[in-house]
Structure formats: structure tokens, C-alpha cells
Amino acid sequence: MSQQESDVIAVVLPDGSELEVERGSSIEEIAYEIGPGLGDATAGGRIDGELVGKELAVTTDGAEIEIVTEDSDEYLQVMRHTAAHTLAQAVQRHYDDMDLAIGPATDDGFYYDFDGLDVDEEDLPAIREEMEAIVEEDLEVTYERVSIEEARERLADQPYKLELLEEFAEEDDTVHFYGQGEWEDLCKGPHVESTGEIGAVELLEIAGAYWRGDEDNEMQTRIYGTAFRDESDLEEFLERRREAEERDHRKIGNEMDLFSIQDRTGPGLPLYHPNGKTVLRELEGFVEELNLDADYEYVETPHVFKTDLWKESGHYDNYADDMFLFEVGDDEFGLKPMNCPGHAAIFDDSAWSYRDLPIRYAENGKVYRKEQRGELSGLSRVWAFTIDDGHLFVEPDGIQAEVGRIMDMIEEVLDTFGLDYEMALATRPEKSVGSDEIWETAESALESVLEARELDYAIEEGDGAFYGPKIDFEFEDAIGRSWDGPTVQLDFTMPEQFDLSYVGEDNEEHRPVMIHRALYGSYERFFMMLIEHFEGKFPLWLAPEQVRVLPITDDNAEYAASVAAELDDAGVRVEVDQSDNRLQRKIRAAHDDRVPYQIIVGDDEMEDGTLSVRDRKERQEHGVDPEAFYEHLENELAEKRTEPDFLD
């Protein structure tokens, strides 16, 4: 190959076409090669999926290139990255003796981490005001590529930047600096042309964050902010944020006495109070009905296994950093991060014929994963959680039918809660086990199921489990937020790891395929989502207290007790408000406690043998026949309706 040829590379554009460019051409230069208008509009780009500044060079033959402009979805990230720099610049204008760490854009905004910065929420308005002044100054964002040696000199008083610099030095002999006015930062970009292009900004909160996310490192001060193109978009975001705060499951969980996470019992270890456990029991019962109808058999495995099992399954090599490990005598044990190896061990304890398959195991299995303490948050990120786990052992030609049945179960769950959802096929991650052939077979099998059912789905490259690809369901809550939930995972690898087998029709041993599935995902995360989705106003069948009887006076107490007794006999969770409060206060208390139905009984109801029924939407009907109301409750519970509808 000649020198001239070696200086030319082919880059792959989004439409699959190739463009020959000089090696080392920047994103912006490539954009100009495509067209002058695109070159003028370039704000950044993606190189093999990584969002970078338009100044960065492309050196790899076959690199996949995307151009980011102001019209691109990614443009908001570009602007927010510059906003993060502007935050750090504003902080440095106001405060001395602090070290800069990192400041990326995020899905909802941006943040910057500082070491040695002593600020609180009351300081945020002044910092934001300085940011707005920097935006008003319309400072040009400049770019420099400098040697490692020069970068060390520039960053001599910034220890965290120097640490990052040494990592960059292993990849290249130059690094990138972006500056605005008197301020600059070590950074790969991308950034807008000037600070004046930053739209409306707001600073949201202050939090602690460990350097590099490692709790063994220093705790730093993180300031979160957000930026939008204009004030209306910002205000819309802030309104959604205010509504999300009102729905925060930690706040509602405390108000409804559902759960607690206490320092003395340990971080990330939820304690479910009677009200919370009532909801969980109903969720468990719903899944149990579905499992038994689908011929699953319940098993139970311990919370801890010898690490010999985790080594055999592959978890030890791929998951040990996220496990709680300890030694007993000469043996090492680990709290289980997943239930699947235990189920594989149960399957391996018997001899199976093709006539026995599929074997379907189910378990509400508690698992433990060692998340960083700084990432723990209510029920959304915990150390201990329960998966409504199912593991199936099937013949290869039974995959499509079994995955289809599982998807029917998942769709029934999500439809029951009235949740809109989307599906995605997650493919092989970088850290995985198994051959290329096995992974291709597994991914093709799941794709065939989706295609056969004529379903719309996305492809999530590299997002599969380490042992196999999966179909993930993502659903949307009442205020438009997306949540990860149910999943179906195909696994050709673990049966190989455990040497699982069954005797086929040909009287030879064959390897089963293992299917992992969860209808909720985990109880904790699904429970958290339900609290926020319904704002604590659970459907009747889930509500910890379904009906509250409110006697108007003490003279009505006996009738109230008899009404409650009939409901209790019918399996309804009912309480009588026996307080001395006036009726309006009793009504307000029941409303605040989010009780679906209130039954008000006074002298008229006693005399007529009727009820006054009120729901939590504050609708009320007098002279209700008790039997008609009880029959309605029975039907509403049986049908698992999402809203009380007696008064519709």
C-alpha cells in the first residue's frame, strides 16, 4: 500500500454509504465534504456512537460517523455540555480554593463536581445569576489540541484533571481543551459556538458524589442543573419535575406507612410495613395466578451459595464486583445476585426426557447486589430486592412457543395496570460468555418471535445480559416517564456451563435451552413505579385499606361496625373511624389516606338500612342498597379495575 493510499480512510455514513476522506479529518471537515450547508450547521458528531466535538479527528478506517446539527436530537446535549462548563466558570468566579472534577451533560440536564466547595441550596440563585451573566457575555467557545506536557503545566493545580490526563495520555499524545473567556477545561466536547447559544438555565439541587463513583474515593459536591432552548421548555420541565416530586415514592411511602429504609438496619435494605406488605401480597398473588395457570411449579432457593456455584455459572468472573462475598472456614460464599443458578441446580438434580419438557420453575426470590452507596435511592436502587423469577428449560424447537406464552403473560400484567409499553431486543454486550454462534442463534430466535407476532420493537445494541440476549419491556407512567420492567432472556450458555441435559426422542442426550423471565422485573422497582404512577391512589384490589366506614355520631357506631363486619366477611380490607372527630375531618382523613371508598352512616342510613357511599374523587351517593354496593366491590376486585367506578 502506498503512502498516499494509507492517508485515506473510508467512513460510514448513517445511510450505510461510504465516504473517502483524509485520515485525521475532523467531524466538521467530513461534514463539509458531504455538503457546505451541513458543514456550516455542524455542532458536533458521533464517532462509532460516541458523542464528540466537531473538531475531533477521525483516524479509524470504517468508522461510523453521524453529524450533529441544531436540528438533531443530540443538540440539547451539546448545549447542556457547554452549560456545565458555564456552571464551573460561574462557581470559580465566586469561590476560591476548590478543585474541578467532571461536568457532563445528562438526559435531563447537566452537573459539575467540585472538591472543597462549601455551598448549599441558598447559594444556587447567585451561581445561576452568574451563569446568566456569562450567557449574556456571549463568550466564544474556543478549541485547542495540546501536547500532554503542556496540558500538565496548565492543569498543575488541578489534581483530578491530572488524574484524567494520565488516562488520556495512554490513548494519545495530545488532548483537547475547550475555553470560554478566562476559563478552560480538559474536554472532548461537543460544545456550541458561544455561551450566548445557551438557552434558559436553572440549577436544581446539590448532592454528594464520590469521585469516579467509587465510595472509597473522596466525597465531592455535585451541582445539578438543566438547560433548554427557551423559557417555555424549561418551565414545562420544571412543572413535570414538581409533579414528580409530589409523586415521589419515598414521600408517599412515608405518608401511607408503606416502607422504610433505616440507617441502623443498613442502606438499600427496605423494611416493608403492614400496609406495604399488603400491596406486595396482592402483587405476588396476581403473578402466582398467572404462573399456576401457565403450569409453572414453585421452588425455593437459599439466599446464599458457595462461590463454586457462581464460578460454574459464570457470575463470579462477570459479576463478582457486584456481589456480597464472605468466607466461612475454608469456603467462600456469596449472597445470590440472581436466582437462575439455583434453578439450574434443581433441574440438574433429576433425569429428564423430552416428554417432560418444558420444565417451568417460579420463585419470588430475594437477591442482593452491591450497588454504590451513593447510587442507592428509595426502592429504585437497593441492595436487597425480590424478583418474580421464572426459569424454563425447553427444547430448542420450543423456544418460539414458550417465549410467546411469556409475552402473553407480560402483556396481561401491563394491560391490567393500564400501562403503555414498548419493546426492545437487547443484543450481546461487550462482557459476555458463550460463542459467537450461540449468540447469533439466540438473538435470531428472539427476533423470530417478535417478527412472527408482528410487533414493533427497537434494537438495543450491546444491552443484553452477559449470558444471553433479551426482550425488554419499557412502560410509561402517568406523567410520561419511562421505566424498565418485565424481561424475557434466552440463554444457551448456562445449560452448557452446568452440563444440563435431557434424553431426546432419539434416545440421545441433548442440551436444553434456558429461558429467564420476570413479569414485573423486580417487586421493589415495580412497587416504586406503581406508587408514583397512581400517586399512592392504588386500584381497589391493591389498596392497603379498601373501605373506611365513617359513623357520624357515637349512636351510629353499632351500625357502622355491622357494615364493616359484612365487608370483612366478604374479604374486603375495611376499617371503622372510631375517632371523636367531626364528619368533615373524618372525610378529610380518609381522603388524605387515599382510601378508595368511604361509607358514611348516620341516623338516616340506620333507619333505612342503607349506605352513603363516597369515593376518593369526592363524589357521593346517598341511599345506596348495601347488597348492590357489596356486589360492585366484588366485581371491581375480581376485574382488577384501575379506578374506583361505583359512582361513574
Describe this structure in words.
With 648 residues, this protein is of the alpha+beta class. A hairpin with a 5-residue loop joins strand 27 and strand 28. The chain has an 8-stranded mixed beta sheet with strand order 17-21-22-29-26-25-23-24, with helices on both faces. A 5-stranded mixed beta sheet has the order 31-30-32-33-34, with helices on both faces. Strands 8-9-14-13 form a 4-stranded antiparallel beta sheet, sandwiched between helices. The chain is globular. The longest helix has 20 residues. The termini are far apart. The protein contains 21 helices and 34 strands. The N terminus is likely disordered.
List the keywords:
648 residues; eight-stranded mixed sheet; five-stranded mixed sheet; 21 helices; 27% strand; disordered N terminus
Shape: globular
Strand content: 25-35%
The helix content is: 25-40%
Mean pLDDT, rounded to whole units?
Answer: 92
For the record, give the distance between the C-alpha atoms at the N and C termini, rounded to a whole number.
Answer: 79 Å
> Number of helical segments?
21
Structural class: alpha+beta
Rg over CA atoms? 30 Å
Number of strand segments: 34
Largest sheet: 8 strands, mixed
- Unreliable stretches (pLDDT < 50, length at least 5) are 1-5
The order of strands across the largest sheet is 17-21-22-29-26-25-23-24
